[in-house]
Automatic annotation (TrEMBL), chains A, B:
GO CC annotations on file: cytoplasm
Keyword check for Ribosomal protein: no
Taxonomic source organism: Thermomicrobium roseum (strain ATCC 27502 / DSM 5159 / P-2)
Catalytic activity as recorded in UniProt: tRNA(Asx) + L-aspartate + ATP = L-aspartyl-tRNA(Asx) + AMP + diphosphate
UniProt-recorded Gene Ontology molecular function terms: aspartate-tRNA ligase activity; aspartate-tRNA(Asn) ligase activity; ATP binding; nucleic acid binding
Assembly behavior: Homodimer.
Protein name: Aspartate--tRNA(Asp/Asn) ligase
Binding site for ATP: R233, D234, E235, Q242, E499, G551, L552, D553, R554
Region (Aspartate): 211-214
Swiss-Prot/TrEMBL GO biological process terms: aspartyl-tRNA aminoacylation
Name of the gene encoding the protein in the UniProt record: aspS
Enzyme class: ligase
Site features described as Important for tRNA non-discrimination, chain residue numbers: H43, G95
Predominant subcellular localization, coarse grouping: cytoplasm
Amino acid sequence: MGESILSTEPRAVRRYTTCGELRRQHIGRTVTLKGWVHRRRDHGRLIFLDLRDRYGITQVVANPAHSSAAHEVAEHVRAEYVLAVTGQVVARPEGTINPALSTGEIEVLADQIEILNPAKTPPFPIAEETDVDESLRLEYRYLDLRRARLQRNLLLRHQVVRFIRHYLEERDFVEIETPMLIKSTPEGARDYVVPSRIFPGHFYALPQSPQQLKQLLMVAGFDRYYQIARCMRDEDLRADRQPEFTQIDLEMSFVDVEDVLELIEGLYTEMFERFASKPLQAKPFPRLTYEEAMRRYGSDKPDLRFGLEIDDVSSVFQNTSFGVFRSVLAEGGVIRGFAVPGFADAPRSQLDQLTEIARSFGAKGLVWLALQQDSGRLIARSPIAKFLNEDEIATLAQRLQAGPGDLVLLVADAEDTAATILGRLRLHVGRERKLIDESVHAFCWVIDPPLFEWNEEEQRWEAMHHPFTSPRDEDLPILDSDPSKVRAKAYDLVADGFELGTGSIRIHRREVQNKIFSIMGYDDTEIERRFGHLLRAFEYGAPPHGGMAPGLDRTIMILAGESSLREVIAFPKNQRAQDLMLGAPSPLAERQLRELHLRVVYPEDQDTTSGA
Amino acid sequence: MGESILSTEPRAVRRYTTCGELRRQHIGRTVTLKGWVHRRRDHGRLIFLDLRDRYGITQVVANPAHSSAAHEVAEHVRAEYVLAVTGQVVARPEGTINPALSTGEIEVLADQIEILNPAKTPPFPIAEETDVDESLRLEYRYLDLRRARLQRNLLLRHQVVRFIRHYLEERDFVEIETPMLIKSTPEGARDYVVPSRIFPGHFYALPQSPQQLKQLLMVAGFDRYYQIARCMRDEDLRADRQPEFTQIDLEMSFVDVEDVLELIEGLYTEMFERFASKPLQAKPFPRLTYEEAMRRYGSDKPDLRFGLEIDDVSSVFQNTSFGVFRSVLAEGGVIRGFAVPGFADAPRSQLDQLTEIARSFGAKGLVWLALQQDSGRLIARSPIAKFLNEDEIATLAQRLQAGPGDLVLLVADAEDTAATILGRLRLHVGRERKLIDESVHAFCWVIDPPLFEWNEEEQRWEAMHHPFTSPRDEDLPILDSDPSKVRAKAYDLVADGFELGTGSIRIHRREVQNKIFSIMGYDDTEIERRFGHLLRAFEYGAPPHGGMAPGLDRTIMILAGESSLREVIAFPKNQRAQDLMLGAPSPLAERQLRELHLRVVYPEDQDTTSGA
């Protein structure tokens, strides 16, 4: 019987040969391969079997002249049968060498073929990368996982996680497991909860992130903590969300913003240089303040792989005769826009469509100007052409770095609204016009976001990030007087227009924390109920600390060039949070409910109750 | 300001010096240390501060003649204050060098001391290893975690996990995350469940182990999977159980028992040789069949660190005149016992106590024989001395390898009962007589356990391990005729009398699986409901596979020399499954319950309901 012949492997890793290891130098050896029938081809008297495992594909030949027993078995096997094949490694005949396959110079002439397990015909082909309905893929996930795409993605994920661990452990980070059954935290989104059997009416929460626990580990003096942390969030699911997700959770003591940025930027630079198929657009990563990101890209996660930079051109229209612009400016609004290079010849239908799209984003209207050269002068074809003078057109073009042949798009509205609409429009046009440079990965930092945002509904300030985020030192004096202007020691890492992760330096001084809570309008009872244990811990010597939690799933998705998180998670849920393979969630036995002191109130019961 | 001066560290790990890195060669450098005040001593004009962080302790001296500002601050700091100290590294004066401390040759003469955060007096001392009430320790876990013991244990845990990952990854194991929100599995113990908001009355289960998922990963062709897997079990908690635990979960394709044993034995041998403070008693690990373990040690997790081996001496009493023995033997029972060396002089009170203890273990009685030399002949002092002849005593002594001065203890009962009672008695005597060799770690394998055990209550066979465990090939023929005799391809790893983990080779052929289910009396509906997805997966080409899941917490507990799992888990629960620090579980808001379609039925309500 054959033995594993890879001399670099540790002793006795396996007692057989994998389908990825045979090369020209093994010719003449007798080996045993184990794997799945990837393809079976009947060439006259010869039967060819491509045998597949995680490590590769090896061609097996069943020749009745060599072994009629092996040939006999080969006649009956079908795709996805599991076989053990013993035979000799031989050179492939001249002209049949397959350079695309690492084992393509050899084949194994079968002495003996044993069927370890037969297989029914799979509901979709394993060997071909055909499009398959996603529900079917999820239901038969164990078969989908056999296909090259998911094998590749999950092996990449494994390699990347190894790399991350190594990178962090080299820098003194300690991996510490935090509990899964914790207390409901005020992280914003809805918790998944777990009823207690011992305490009727009491529940644990599953962590949305180990935020408070990692801060407590800093109080405990562990200095640098990390965890590839499993998190759960009972959210309404959008296209690229999963109820379960994984984050690269980390926290450091005695650091400020620069230390965290340096660490994470080093991690992602090295990671992408090792594992991505595309280069980084820029190193070091550009840093944008939140204000700048919103102004120039209309987004807190700008995609820097294309231009179409937005600018504020309010000053150009200071004395405009166009009424709409005049009144927006009079109300304190802004006029902003961007130029689309070489799109001045856009047909009217496309311009109308753009206007429609801007409206769907919330715009009251969209102004377009097609710039043209007219005997040396720059003129604009535009619905508002008659309100524009030559100076305005020239200044506008200069501000937006536009020239003849370019299309200028303008939105006039309140500042936040204009920014958001133009940000979405920029993305739309960038995609439509194929301006996105798909040959690079573009990272950036978005820093110094506002500490608070105004909750219109509850008429109070709330923390934009979370209530432990530290204000910037220079903004401490205006905490009381102008909360809206206070910036946070927070930072987002953005890649290709996706937010990869967010983090902050935390408040470690009680008096600052109290001030923040009072601005947020929390009373002492509320503070104690929500944050009591953390605040108490901070009284016993909390070090300055901060951290971050980049999303692992999103990171792998971008590295793998996928557009859905489901392609990089072994067993994902669908958009109704169901596991179609396992059939979860599922009803509980009455006995279990009783033990948990619970009764289910079905929607019709609820109606009855509320009607009574 | 000082910089990190450890040249072997990666660039820019930190901008200050840790409390563990300064040595004689750094004398003359100006550094900044950050850490906690471990101890403060006032020696006349000089104030000494031991500054502590995860990496060590460095002595800081505040001398008013050198810096009155630093001395002024030092006068006000107390234990556990967080400081930043800048000063010069100087040699300690002759006679004050502390060889117990890695930084003991130097001290830092403070130029400047900044209080980063003050600290209240902790509820228990951090610097001393005093005994503290465990509830208090759990409530202030973040302070308990600062103490040397838990710092040591959690850093050990981190190192061991690193080692395990490295060991497995070198051998082609891929780390794959399996979901936390799964379907209730029939693993035996009670699931923790999570209500679905989207599907009223439906629940997810939290994994007790990723058993079925790892088998599906083998079907998916990942060949070798591992995960440091988080598991949860809603059990009634015993002393050394936790509702949350972590296992070294792994699975391999195309393997048999020997492959798994070799892998795991290599892992644990290397792990203990690297990290344990005591040597291994034996290498390779002894292997006992389950039958042998039960017979010789009365336990399926024998502690081999001491002798007191049990043997069956029924044959010695074949013709006994002692009525009790005679009738037990006549009923098919056994007489078993062990000898306690040098304990023949046990006073009557101790023998009575042993009898009491045996009774508390379920024995009907305990027979003791104190062996003595009497002019060359072996005689026995014993309550049943008059029933024993010289031959019987001699043969008994020979069988139990006993001689003059030894005490023989015998139990007569049904085989299983006798085994269990003697196993517990052996442990008790071993501990009481201090026979346990605490200077070594004793590993062993317990293999070939029965596949089935009889469920007296339900009058049916059930799987001893789990229903996918493969029978041994040579026992397949007696599956139908004598299920009780069928042995499983299962194995337990035992260390120092603790079961570290259990595993098995799984059934991969559908016809064998069907046979097992029919012996267990499952009908098709039951099979489909419980195992449908797994069995369906097996029809598409399942490789032979098997694995194991050693407990990580228990492993670290033994390595660290601790006797409770709570000492090796960062944030453990107490014996009522509460997190005393976070205050979990806790009541849920009415709104949350409504969203989950649940109503709490408090015990009094239940009474009312059942009374109605």
